[in-house]
Amino acid sequence: MTINIKKCTLEDSCKLQEISYETFNETFQHENSPENMNAYLEKAFNLNQLEKELSTISSQFYFVYFNNEIAGYLKVNTKDAQSEKMGDESLEIERIYIRSKYQKHGLGKYLINKAIEIAVKENKRKIWLGVWEKNENAISFYKNMGFVQTGGHSFYMGDEEQTDFIMTKTLI
Fold it and tell me: Which of 27, 33, 40, 61 is 20 to 30 Å from 96 at the Cα level?
């Protein structure tokens, strides 16, 4: 078993779109209407949107490879790219998506540790993320990784308002 990581570039936008659609559907389609899923997927993961995000200086994407196959990815944000105003001392983990067939291989932990490494290198004091209140597996995972719930915010899946817990881990 080999695990590798590679920073994404604009040339990766089609691969990023493919894995985004796949992993988001695998995780959330059973809890949401097809109309709301399609609306969200088209808004969040269309090529123009992904290319804009890939070009944002304060955002970084990383593919994680398991035995030389793309198994998932990580997106982190700093400064004004964060989805909430958390200040310059914070790094946001906006996305950790792992394909279902690669889950339970430690890749989520690997990506969290990559985010921590980036945060430490950039002298951040905390990392934070939003996780859907109904995603119990993810909430449990983040708690095991040292995150605590510190708030919440609205997340729109199509026309449905949902609640994300904000979870934070202090680094320094």
Answer: 33
